[in-house]
Write a structure and sequence with these properties.
The chain is mostly helical and 817 residues long. The chain is built from 43 helices and 6 strands.
Length: 817
């Protein structure tokens, strides 16, 4: 058998079918109606009969019904049959039942019509109940009764009842009937029993085109795209020629495996067969090319379409969203509005996705208004999209408002809200919603854990990390690659880098994000050599590094002073992998050179950049100038930052500290004065420490904690102990106050308060874990080394950039941070 990648080459020898002839529309005379319905022509002499035959809507039927009753025709079998048929056709099965029940001598055809009506317009339970009534009334089933019932069982994924109908098919002698068995194949495929579907298909003595299309669609919809494509070749070998339905079925299969080549072959066949201009074929082609990364080709097909359905528009919008061009997606959406195309739930969800990617709150609110006006907000999926959009637009408060007003919340709703809180730094709310979700007996899935685990990672609490890991195991999610990746990242961010590596090594499957998480973990712990070694192992495997991988490994080199390795990786990124560096990569390179003291090289690197340097780049340069006390380059970097982001006070503080270190007090005063005039403020230092499942927050100089007096008293004693061990306070960045006051100010830094609290409230030998929102200052770093020495405690501090493991008077960073 030919492979799926070449199977459509076989189609090149097929001649296009002759175009169908279009018969002229007949005149609806009594004679033609009689021929068409096999009813004697004299019956049609009454005008009501002709009106029923010409009826095209429920509204018209309700207008005709009084005439039938007035003329005493309501009890005629002809009119009863026609009324039943029309009521069922227009979805009014209850009205059909009111016609059906009073009839005394019910013909079998009436039962068949009613069963069709129940199957198409009512619940599965009602359809099955009516079928039982048929059996009780000794009505002999016909094959189409079973095809209708099998379809409704499949649509409801009711395998148990479907098997009962399958048994009835066999009992009534239809096990060789192609129509009935096609229904059986469809049932098992829709119920995710594709192996059973194929067994039924394979046993059929004869198979028509509909049957082939059914099994091909079954494999495609069950995620077995390649098998579906292989079956197209087999159907041709057995004499069946693919039609437009076959093409529409296999195009998504090609899209699902991302095979542009196979999709193009199918496209070629569609052109030769004369199918290309069919709207469903064109729409499927738009979808296929978009999913295969050829959104430009998709747009060409879309623009050439003479007729478009709402599905065509949705496919094009989705294509642009998935290809990372949300602006063009919104342009198509706007064009759709301008042309008056009726929007669907899918349309607004795609538009909301585009707004979320753009972070465009105003357009997101506009789409929300459309949702309300068109009454599309009753769909929970639309509400979920609104939650995600508002969260990504940094308005988690509006997301919460949508969530609270949502009736019938699904697991997706909870996941969207938890992720929204986590992404907006509202860690406690994310965890509270996770707990509330469990209290309502909603079982978390992999998406839930992947949403909530990063929130736990931000708290850096090892005990809770272990609890979450246990929860993943209990819910059988510990084999999911994305959950495991999140756990690796969480343990690394909680300071347990060895545990993170153990999990990494245990994983049977690894995604590129898994490698990135582990490499980044090593980098933030100052284990640059381990990060480089792991990156080298990755290169030997089948998973290729992406742009994030290179950012992680270059940053790891930066934190460990591995300048040559970092330079090599930056060159390899483009030369060996064809990846264009982004602004973050340039920022990492400036950080790499700057931390190593190569400030002039870092500045030359900035001047030689092929793109205009951004905030990330100049921010790294300013930070390096602070570390190495370079006033000249610091001023240049700060000037650029003030132009790019004048509202950020942190850059002014850095420049001020550079001046203070250089004893340039006048310039420092000018920067501080400018900050006061413009209302800029430094982000206050905050350190967190967890004790007995409660997180305690400490701000620099704060005295609001219940144990404040005890903490400050302890720090006085501890300060004397570490001075005796060799600690000398660094007061260079503080001026205009007495030396004693300078020392008091240093003593009230948030990390020192948090460390003192931890030492006071834990037993000897317990490791202290601290989380700080800013970069740890030089004095606190030095003091913590001495604290670890005199108290014989290990202290792990995670600042905004990296981890510091203090033990026996040394730090894991080797004083390189």
């Amino acid at each position: 058998m030919m492979s799926s990648s070449s199977q459509f080459l076989h189609l090149t020898n097929n001649k296009p079918p002759s175009p169908p002839t279009s018969p002229s529309k007949p005149n609806l005379t009594s004679h033609t109606l009689s021929q068409r319905t096999h009813i004697p022509s004299h019956v049609y002499k009454h005008p009501s009969a002709l009106l029923l035959e010409l009826c095209t809507s429920m509204k018209e039927l309700h207008q005709i019904l009084p005439l039938i009753i007035k003329n005493g025709l309501y009890n005629e079998h002809l009119f009863q049959t026609k009324l039943l048929s029309l009521f069922c056709k227009y979805g009014c099965v209850n009205e059909a039942a009111r016609v059906f029940e009073p009839i005394e001598d019910k013909l079998d055809v009436l039962y068949h019509t009613m069963l069709k009506g129940y199957a198409k317009n009512s619940s599965l339970h009602n359809a099955m109940s009516f079928f039982v009534q048929m059996k009780c009334d000794d009505v002999k089933p016909v094959v189409y009764n079973f095809t209708y019932l099998l379809k409704v069982c499949g649509d409801n994924a009711d395998l148990r009842r479907g098997k009962e109908i399958h048994g009835q098919v066999i009992t009534n002698g239809f096990s060789s009937n192609v129509f009935a068995m096609t229904g059986v194949v469809n049932l098992y495929a829709k119920c995710r029993q594709i192996d059973d579907a194929y067994k039924m298909f394979d046993r059929m003595p004869e198979r028509d085109l509909v049957c082939w299309n059914t099994i091909i669609a079954g494999f495609a919809q069950n995620g077995l795209a390649r098998v579906a494509l292989d079956l197209v070749l087999r159907m041709q070998e057995e004499g069946q020629k693919p039609d437009s339905i076959t093409v529409v079925t296999v195009l998504p299969a090609a899209a699902n495996i991302g095979s542009w080549r196979i999709g193009k072959l199918i496209h070629g066949y569609a052109i030769r067969a004369g199918f290309e201009l069919l709207v469903n074929i064109s729409t499927a082609l738009v979808d296929m090319y978009s999913k295969c990364g050829s959104v430009g080709t998709a747009r060409l097909i879309f623009d050439r379409m003479k007729q478009r359905t709402v599905v065509s528009w949705n496919s094009m919008i989705h294509g642009y969203v998935q290809s990372g061009d949300p602006e063009e997606a919104m342009a198509i959406f706007q064009k759709m509005l301008d042309e008056g195309v009726e929007l669907t739930n899918v349309t607004v969800m795609e538009a909301l996705h585009a707004c979320a990617d753009l972070g465009d709150l105003e357009r997101g609110k506009f789409v929300h208004k459309l949702v309300d006006e068109l009454k599309l907000g009753y769909d929970v999926s639309v509400k979920n999209s609104l939650i995600s959009m508002y969260s990504k637009c940094k308005r988690v408060d509006l997301a919460a408002k949508v969530f609270e007003g949502l009736q019938g919340k699904t697991i997706v709703s909870w996941n969207a809200m938890i992720l929204g809180y986590a992404q907006n730094g509202r860690v406690n709310e994310a965890l509270n919603h996770f707990c509330e979700m469990q209290s309502q007996n909603i079982k978390p899935d992999s998406f839930t854990l992947v949403s909530v685990i990063p929130a736990l990672a931000e708290l850096s609490v090892t005990r809770q990390a272990k609890w979450m890991h246990g929860l993943a195991i209990r819910n059988c999610l510990d084999k999911n690659v994305f959950v495991m990746t999140a756990l690796v990242d969480m343990y690394a961010k909680c300071g347990a880098i060895r545990t993170a590596r153990k999990l990494f090594d245990m994983m049977e499957e690894r995604h590129v994000t898994t490698w990135n998480a582990m490499i980044d973990g090593y980098g933030t712990h100052g284990l640059g050599k381990d990060a480089v070694e792991l990156f080298n192992d990755m290169q030997k495997g089948t998973i290729k590094p992406n742009d994030i991988t290179f950012l992680c490994v270059i940053s790891a080199c930066s934190h460990s002073g591995l300048v040559q390795e970092g330079l090599r990786f930056f060159s390899s990124m483009k030369e060996d992998y064809g990846l264009e560096p982004a602004m973050d990569h340039y920022g990492a390179m400036v950080d790499l050179l700057g931390r190593a003291g190569q400030l002039n090289k870092a500045w030359d690197f900035i001047q030689d950049m092929p793109v205009e340097p951004g905030i990330t780049v100049f921010g790294a340069m300013l930070g390096a100038c602070k570390i190495h006390k370079n006033v000249e380059l610091g001023e240049k970097a700060a000037k650029k930052l003030f132009e790019l982001n004048p509202d950020e006070g942190g850059y002014h503080v850095l420049l001020s500290n550079i001046y203070a270190t250089a004893s340039m007090w006048d310039k420092m005063a000018k920067v501080r004065t400018m900050m006061e005039k413009t209302g800029l403020q430094k982000t206050p230092g905050c350190s967190l420490v967890e004790l007995k499942n409660e997180v305690h927050s400490f701000y620099s100089g704060s005295t609001i904690h219940p144990q404040s007096k005890r903490i400050y008293a302890f720090l006085e004693t501890l300060g004397e102990d570490i001075k005796a061990a060799g600690y000398v306070p660094d007061t260079n960045s503080i001026h205009d106050v007495e030396d004693d006051v300078k020392k008091q100010l240093l003593n009230s830094h948030s990390e020192k308060l948090a460390i003192a609290f931890g030492l006071l409230n834990t037993s000897p030998g317990t490791t202290i874990h601290i989380r700080k929102n800013l970069r740890v200052c030089g004095d606190c770093h030095n003091a913590t080394k001495y604290i670890s020495l005199v108290t014989r405690r290990e202290i792990i501090v995670r600042d905004m950039h990296r981890f510091h493991h203090f033990k026996n008077g040394t730090c894991s960073c080797g004083d390189y941070w």
